Structure formats: C-alpha cells, structure tokens
From TrEMBL:
It comes from Nocardioides iriomotensis. The lineage of its organism: Bacteria, Bacillati, Actinomycetota, Actinomycetes, Propionibacteriales. InterPro entries: PDDEXK-like_dom_sf, PDDEXK_AddAB-type. Residues 9-254 form the PD-(D/E)XK endonuclease-like domain. It holds the Pfam family PDDEXK_1. The keyword Phosphoprotein does not apply. This is PD-(D/E)XK nuclease family protein. Gene3D superfamilies: 3.90.320.10.
Length: 270
C-alpha cells in the first residue's frame, strides 16, 4: 500500500514548530479546548484581505481605490477592539491604507489568481495553502503576493524564509505549469514591498524541510489517535513556554503558558 500523504498547510507545520502543546490542542484534542476571544489585529487582517479579494470581483469601472476602501468599511467587525471608538479609528486607518495601496494597482490587469488554493506534493506530504494573489507581470513572470497588516517591519529575510510563500510558489508552478520563483510580501500599513527570487534549489530546501517535519508529525498524530495516556500525550507534545504564550488562544487552559502575562485583545494593533 502506498503511504498516505500527510495533508498540511504551512500554518499547521508552523504551529507545531512553535509549540507542540498548542498544536495538539488546536488540531488533535477532542473536544478542542476553549479558545480565547478574538484579537483585534486579526479582525483588521481579515477585513483587509476580504476587501482586497472582493475588489477584483467588482466590474472594471467600479474597481477604484475608493471602492476598495468602502469594502473595508462594509466588511468591518468590531471583534477584539477595546470599544467602538478604537474600532472606528482602525477601520478608517485600514480604509486609508487600502485606498493608497490600490492606487498603485492597475485594475484592468486581472491577476492569475486571487485567494487561490494551490498544493504541491512531496514524498510524504501534501502541502497546500491559499495565495492572496498571483500576478502575471510583463518582464517578471508569475509573482506570488501575500498581504500583511501586522505591526512588524518586514525584511527580505521574511520573504526568503517563508515556508508559506515557497509552498505557494511551488503550488502555483504546478497548477499553472509555469516557472514561479518570485515571492513578495506587501505590507499594507506602510505600503512596503519586500520580495525574494527563489531558485529551484531554495524552494526544494523549503519543501524537503516541510516533508521531514510532516513525516514526524504524521507519526505523532497516528500515535495520539491510537491512544495515549494523559501523561504520554503531555510528554509527546511538550509546551514551549515563550513570550508568544501571551498571544496563545489556549493560554487559559495551558498550565505552563499561564506563567506568561496575557496580552489584551487589542495589543497587537499596528
Ligand atoms: S500557552 Fe504557550 S506553552 Fe501553552 S499551548 Fe500556548 S504557546 Fe504552548
């Protein structure tokens, strides 16, 4: 029998790498332990991503920067914000930077894909993800674009080291039957773009690392599902206590993680 491929989005692999205990709680424990409430910065990211995707569905004459800003407003939610005033302040801010960003985008040139799911197989895994945008640019070829709305300043290393971008590039190459080496992070709040030109070898490096990790996780998942005592499960999926615990949605049910102070739901706002 052929070995079943381990299906994984890069976020699943990253969750395990960050903290095996968090991975177990989020992907394996049944029932899933209660998650914390919404984070305001996630609310912002979701509204901006949806607006930038729906913008391409508008008829060309209506595909203006102002219409993109309006999509941010209509899709807005106040989840995670301190109060309505803070929510409106960040809604208007997001509207502004989405409009500024879209003023740099040619609405007549349709991308090859918007929120397009792509996948690529390795020896032991089926890696998949959803690319925010896939462009076909004259002189540059196919370019994978990932939108960012966080407060971190992005560097070229972020684009180079991103497993998600490498998976999108490999998946887009497979789906489109085109060479895809260019990946970019577009930081909406600052209008900054950082990119990286992969080589087949650098993409392979990402994929083979993901393949090895997926194989290890497949073994662990199978052992967990076959049955572990609570002590065995805790040993197999140890908590990695770090400052990130303050952001963890399972912090309230994770004993070791509670030693790190919790962030407020709006602390991640840019
Ligand atoms: S609180 Fe920290 S240690 Fe606990 S699951 Fe979350 S990230 Fe892991």
């Amino acid at each position: 029998m052929p070995t079943r491929l381990y299906p994984a989005a890069p976020s699943r692999l990253a969750t395990y790498a960050d903290c095996p205990r968090r991975y177990r709680m989020g992907y394996l424990d049944q029932p899933t332990p209660p998650r914390g409430g919404a984070w305001a910065h996630h609310t912002v990211g979701a509204a901006v991503h949806v607006a930038l995707a729906r913008w391409w569905e508008l008829p060309l004459p209506r595909r203006t920067p102002a219409a993109g800003g309006e999509l941010v407003v209509t899709g807005w939610s106040s989840e995670g914000f301190r109060d309505e005033r803070q929510s409106r302040e960040h809604r208007d801010r997001a509207r502004g930077y989405v409009e500024r960003y879209l003023a740099t985008v040619d609405p007549a040139v349709l991308p090859l894909g918007v929120e397009r799911t792509v996948s690529v197989r390795t020896e032991r895994a089926s890696l998949w993800g959803r690319a925010d945008r896939i462009d076909d640019r004259p002189g540059e070829g196919v370019v994978v674009v990932d939108y960012k709305t966080g407060r971190s300043v992005l560097t070229v290393d972020d684009a180079r080291e991103s497993l998600a971008l490498a998976v999108y590039a490999a998946g887009a190459a497979r789906t489109l039957r085109r060479e895809v080496t260019r990946v970019e992070l577009h930081h909406l709040p600052t209008g900054t773009v950082v990119g990286w030109d992969h080589t087949p070898a650098s993409i392979d490096e990402h994929l083979s690392g993901a393949d090895a990790q997926a194989a290890a996780m497949a073994t662990l998942d199978a052992a967990f599902r076959a049955g572990m005592t609570p002590d065995e499960a805790d040993a197999a999926f140890p908590p990695l206590v770090a400052p990130r615990c303050g952001w963890c949605e399972f912090r309230s049910t994770c004993g070791p993680g509670r030693s790190v102070p919790a962030h407020r739901p709006w602390d991640g706002l840019a």
